[in-house]
Task: structure prediction
Amino acid sequence: MKWAGSDPLYINYHDNEWGVEVHDDRLLFEFLVLEGAQAGLNWITILKRIFP
Result:
């Protein structure tokens, strides 16, 4: 979890979403769109939009 650092958003994302198997098509599509939207942005920027 070294990459998560001490930011609570990163820690929550690491512990509850990253690496968790997903079988829901809508959620998979959401992740695909978020990854595409992330191009050129820091992931923390995306996380702040997901979890305001």
Summary: The chain is about 60% helix and 0% strand.
